[in-house]
C-alpha cells in the first residue's frame, strides 16, 4: 500500500461500518457491506479496507477476486512501466498463496502479464498455473498460453509449447500446422499434416474431410520442394492417386509441379507423359493436358528469351527440338483423348473406328490398331457391332490390293462367337461382295454354299445357348444373298434349289415368294411360279399375304385371261374368303373386271353388290358409285334404282344426302318428277335447314322448275316441320335450364322424350326401304300427289294466316306461268 492509503481519514458515515467489523471481524458479509458502501462513495480507503479484510479472511475467494479485479481496473490508461503494475502483480502473487487452485485467478493474472509484455516472466507464470491446477482445468489456460506465444517472435519457444499442448489436445493439430506454415517451418508442418491424414480416427476441428486435408498436403509439398526434406513427395502423391481416383488430374499436376519447382524439368515431362497415358476420364485428361501444354509453352518461351540474350551455337538445335516437342504434343491431342475413351471402355467399337481414322496415312499404325482391337474387344462386352471391326480390317487390306490377307481376315472373322446371327451373316455377305468385286464368281457360289451348309444337328434360330455358327443356316439374310447370286451366276436348277430350300426352312418372306415367282416366270415356268405363290399363301396370313395374292392374281389373269374362268373364280373366292375389309376393294374390282370381260354380267353385278358390303365404311360411297355406273352401262339407268335405295339405306347421313340428290336428279332426267319429289321428301328428314342449305335450295329450284303452288307450299311445310324437329332438343334443354321447380323439370323431360321418340320414329320410318315401297304403292293408288308428314302437334291454320302469307312471300320467286298451273294428277311410281 502507498503512504496515502495508510493515512486515509475515515468519514463519520464509516464509523457505523467500522463498529460492525470490530464486532464481527470474520464475517465476509459485513466486510462486503462495508466495501460496497465505499464503492458507492468512491472512497480512497477502499484498497485499505480490502487489505484489512483479506488479512482477517485470507481464504475468501470472493474478497480476493473482487479485490484483484478492482486493482486491475485501476491500471486502465496507465503505462506498463508505472509502479502500480508491480503492486498489482504483487497482489496476485499474495492471492495465489491461498487461491492457487482457482483457475480464474490464474487466468486473470496470465492475461495481465500478457499485456505487460514480459515474455519469460509470463511464460513462467503460465507454467506455474499448469503445474498448480489439475489437468481437468488446463483447457482454460492453454488457449491463453497459445495466444501469448503467437504474439511474440519466439518461434522455438512457441513450437515447444505447441508440442506440449498437442499432448493434451491432439485435435488442435490443424492450428499448430497453420502456425508452422505462418513461421515458414514447412517441413514439420508437412509431417504433421501427413500424420493426421494417415489417422483414421482424426476429426477436423474446422470440419474438413480427409480428401480436403489430402489436397492441402499435396498442395503444400508440391509448391515447396526445397523446404520439405523429410517426406517422400513422389510416394505420397502416388498413394493419393491410388486412393482418390476421382482427383487424378489435380494430383498428377501437383506431382509434376513438384518436379518443375525442383528444377527437374525432364522428370516433370516424364510425369506429364505418364499421366496422360493413365488418366481414365476426359476431365482429368483436360486438366493434365492443359498443364502439360502450358509447361511446354513456358519452357519454349523461356528458351527463346535466353537465346535472344546470350546467343550460343547449339541454341538453334535446342530451340527447334523444344518447338517440335510442343507441336507434337498438340498434334497428339485427339489421339490421346481417344486413348482415354478406350481406357474407360476398351470394348467400345466406335472408339476403335475413330482411332483408325486418326491414323490416316499410317498403314502400320492402322494394322496395329485393328489387330489390337479384335484381340481386346470381347463379343459379350462389345458396345456396338463387333463385326464392323473385322469387315473394316479386311477392307483395309482390300483397299491396298492385298486380297489374300483380306481373305485371311474374313476366315478368322467367321469364327468369332458373335452375339447375333445377323452379325455373322453380315461378315459372310461382305466376304462374298469382295469376291464379286474382283470377279471370282464361281468362288462366291462355293463360299455361299459353305455359309449355308446344314450343321450336324438342327437347332432353333433363337436358341442362344447354341453358337451363331450353328444357327447361321436359318439366316434369311445369307439365303437372300445366296438366291440373288444364283440368279446372277448360277443355273436355273441350282437357283430353284436355293429357293426351295428357303421354303423348306420356312424362313421366306412375302418378297422372297414374289421374287421366286418372278424368277420362274422369267424362265417360262408359269405353273411352277403359281405353285410357288400358293406355297407362300399357305405360309402367311393376312395382311402379310396381300402382296402375294395381288401378284398371283395379276399374273394369273395376264397369263390365262378368261381361258380358265372357273379356276380364276376359285382363286378369287379363296382370296376373298378371309380378306380383311381394308384390302378387299382392290380384289373385288379385279374380280368384277374379270366377270365383265370374260364372264356374265349378272355375275359382275353380284360381285359389285358383295363389294359394297365387304369394303370399309369410308369406301362404300365410292364403291356404290362404281356399282351404279356399271349397272347403268350394262342394264340401263332405270336398273340403278334398287342400288340407289340400298345405298341410301346403308350410307352415312352426309353420303346419303348426296346419293339422294343424285337419285332425284336421275329421276328428273327420266321425267319421273313424282319419284324425284318423293326422294327429296325422304332426304329432307336428315337435312337440317340451318346446316344443309344447299339441299333445300336444290329442292326449291326443283319445285320452281317442275312443281306448282301446292307442291311449293308442301315443300315449305316440310321444311318448317324438319326445322322444328331439329330445334326441339335445343328448346327443351333451354326450358330445362330455366325451370327451377322439380315438377316442371320432370314434365319438360317427359315432353322432350316423347317428342324425340316421335322424331326418331318418323326418321326411321322415312329412311327405311319399306317406307319407300309404301310411298311408291300409295302413289300408284292415288290420283293426286299430296305428300304430307303427319304431326299430331300441328295446328290447322287457314290460308289467310301469317304462315301462308310467308309461304306466298317465298313463292314470289316462282314464275307466274308456274303459279297459275292447276294441280295436275301424276301417275304412281313404276319399277321398270
From TrEMBL:
Q: Which residues form the Pre-mRNA-splicing factor Syf1/CRNKL1-like C-terminal HAT-repeats domain?
A: 379-751
| Source domain of life | Eukaryota
Q: Name one GO biological process term.
A: generation of catalytic spliceosome for first transesterification step
Where does this polypeptide localize? Nucleus
The record's annotation in SMART domains points to: HAT (SM00386)
Family to which this protein belongs: Belongs to the crooked-neck family.
- The name this protein goes by in its record: Pre-mRNA-splicing factor SYF1
Amino acid at each position: 500500500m502507498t503512504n496515502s492509503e495508510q493515512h486515509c481519514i475515515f468519514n463519520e458515515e464509516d464509523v457505523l461500518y467500522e463498529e460492525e467489523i470490530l464486532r464481527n471481524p470474520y464475517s465476509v458479509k459485513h466486510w462486503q457491506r462495508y466495501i460496497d458502501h465505499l464503492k458507492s462513495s468512491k472512497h480512497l480507503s477502499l484498497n485499505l479496507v480490502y487489505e484489512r479484510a483479506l488479512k482477517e479472511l485470507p481464504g475468501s475467494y470472493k474478497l480476493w477476486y473482487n479485490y484483484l479485479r478492482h486493482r486491475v481496473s485501476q491500471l486502465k490508461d496507465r503505462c506498463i512501466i508505472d509502479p502500480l503494475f508491480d503492486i498489482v502483480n504483487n497482489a496476485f502473487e499474495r492471492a495465489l498463496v491461498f487461491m492457487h487452485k482457482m483457475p480464474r485467478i490464474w487466468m486473470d493474472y496470465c492475461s495481465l502479464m500478457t499485456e505487460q509484455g514480459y515474455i519469460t516472466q509470463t511464460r513462467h507464470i503460465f507454467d506455474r498455473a499448469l503445474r498448480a491446477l489439475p489437468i481437468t482445468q488446463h483447457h482454460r489456460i492453454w488457449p491463453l498460453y497459445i495466444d501469448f506465444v503467437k504474439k511474440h517472435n519466439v518461434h522455438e519457444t512457441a513450437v515447444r509449447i505447441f508440442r506440449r499442448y498437442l499432448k493434451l489436445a491432439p485435435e488442435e493439430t490443424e492450428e499448430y500446422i497453420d502456425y508452422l506454415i505462418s513461421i515458414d517451418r514447412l517441413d514439420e508442418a508437412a509431417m504433421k499434416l501427413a500424420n493426421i491424414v494417415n489417422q483414421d480416427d482424426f476429426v477436423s476441428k474446422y470440419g474438413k474431410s480427409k480428401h480436403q486435408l489430402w489436397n492441402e498436403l499435396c498442395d503444400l509439398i508440391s509448391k515447396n520442394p526445397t523446404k520439405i526434406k523429410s517426406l517422400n513427395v513422389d510416394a505420397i502423391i502416388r498413394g493419393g492417386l491410388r486412393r482418390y481416383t476421382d482427383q487424378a488430374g489435380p494430383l498428377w499436376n501437383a506431382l509434376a509441379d513438384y518436379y518443375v519447382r525442383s528444377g527437374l524439368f525432364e522428370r516433370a515431362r516424364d510425369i506429364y507423359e505418364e499421366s496422360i497415358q493413365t488418366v481414365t476420364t476426359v476431365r482429368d485428361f483436360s486438366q493434365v493436358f492443359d498443364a502439360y501444354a502450358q509447361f511446354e509453352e513456358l519452357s519454349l518461351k523461356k528458351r527463346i528469351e535466353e537465346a535472344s540474350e546470350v546467343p550460343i551455337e547449339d541454341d538453334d538445335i535446342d530451340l527447334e527440338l523444344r518447338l517440335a516437342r510442343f507441336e507434337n504434343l498438340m498434334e497428339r491431342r485427339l489421339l490421346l483423348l481417344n486413348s482415354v475413351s478406350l481406357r474407360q471402355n476398351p470394348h467400345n467399337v466406335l472408339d476403335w473406328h475413330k482411332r483408325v481414322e486418326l491414323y490416316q496415312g499410317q498403314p502400320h499404325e492402322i494394322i496395329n490398331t485393328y489387330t489390337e482391337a479384335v484381340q481386346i474387344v470381347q463379343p459379350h462386352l462389345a458396345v456396338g457391332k463387333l463385326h464392323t471391326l473385322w469387315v473394316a480390317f479386311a477392307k483395309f487390306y482390300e483397299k491396298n490390293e492385298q486380297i489374300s490377307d483380306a481373305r485371311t481376315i474374313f476366315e478368322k472373322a467367321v469364327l468369332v462367337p458373335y452375339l447375333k446371327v445377323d452379325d455373322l451373316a453380315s461378315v459372310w455377305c461382305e466376304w462374298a461382295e469382295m469376291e464379286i468385286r474382283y470377279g471370282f464368281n464361281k468362288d462366291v457360289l462355293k463360299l455361299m454354299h459353305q455359309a449355308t451348309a446344314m450343321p450336324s444337328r438342327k437347332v432353333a434360330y433363337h436358341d442362344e445357348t447354341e453358337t451363331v455358327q450353328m444357327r447361321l443356316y436359318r439366316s434369311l439374310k445369307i439365303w437372300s444373298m445366296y438366291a440373288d447370286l444364283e440368279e446372277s451366276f448360277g443355273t436355273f436348277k441350282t437357283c430353284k434349289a436355293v429357293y426351295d430350300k428357303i421354303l423348306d426352312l420356312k424362313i421366306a418372306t412375302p418378297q422372297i415368294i414374289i421374287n421366286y415367282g418372278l424368277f420362274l416366270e422369267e424362265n417360262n415356268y408359269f405353273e411352277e411360279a403359281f405353285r410357288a405363290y400358293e406355297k407362300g399363301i399357305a405360309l402367311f396370313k393376312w395382311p402379310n399375304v396381300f402382296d402375294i395374292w395381288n401378284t398371283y392374281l395379276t399374273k394369273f389373269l395376264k397369263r390365262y385371261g378368261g381361258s380358265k374362268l372357273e379356276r380364276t373364280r376359285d382363286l378369287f373366292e379363296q382370296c376373298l374368303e378371309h380378306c380383311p375389309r381394308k384390302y378387299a376393294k382392290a380384289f373385288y374390282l379385279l374380280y368384277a373386271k374379270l366377270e365383265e370381260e370374260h364372264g356374265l354380267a349378272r355375275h359382275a353385278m353380284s360381285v359389285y353388290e358383295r363389294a359394297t358390303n365387304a369394303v370399309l365404311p369410308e369406301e362404300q360411297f365410292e364403291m356404290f358409285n362404281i356399282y351404279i355406273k356399271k349397272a347403268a352401262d350394262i342394264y340401263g339407268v332405270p336398273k340403278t334404282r334398287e342400288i340407289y335405295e340400298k345405298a341410301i339405306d346403308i350410307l352415312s347421313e352426309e353420303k346419303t344426302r348426296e346419293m339422294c340428290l343424285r337419285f332425284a336428279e336421275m329421276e328428273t332426267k327420266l321425267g319421273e318428277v313424282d319419284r324425284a319429289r318423293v326422294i327429296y321428301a325422304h332426304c329432307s328428314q336428315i337435312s337440317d335447314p340451318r346446316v344443309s342449305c344447299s339441299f333445300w335450295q336444290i329442292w326449291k329450284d326443283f319445285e320452281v322448275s317442275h312443281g306448282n303452288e301446292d307442291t311449293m307450299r308442301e315443300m315449305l311445310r316440310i321444311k318448317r316441320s324438319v326445322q322444328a324437329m331439329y330445334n326441339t332438343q335445343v328448346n327443351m334443354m333451354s326450358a330445362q335450364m330455366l325451370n327451377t321447380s322439380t315438377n316442371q323439370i320432370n314434365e319438360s323431360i317427359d315432353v322432350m322424350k316423347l317428342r324425340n321418340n316421335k322424331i326418331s320414329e318418323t326418321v326411321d320410318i322415312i329412311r327405311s326401304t319399306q317406307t319407300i315401297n309404301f310411298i311408291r304403292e300409295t302413289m300408284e293408288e292415288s290420283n293426286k300427289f299430296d305428300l304430307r308428314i303427319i304431326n299430331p302437334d300441328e295446328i290447322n291454320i287457314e290460308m289467310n294466316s301469317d304462315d301462308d302469307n310467308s309461304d306466298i312471300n317465298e313463292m314470289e320467286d316462282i314464275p307466274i306461268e308456274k303459279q297459275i298451273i292447276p294441280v295436275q294428277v301424276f301417275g304412281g311410281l313404276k319399277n321398270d
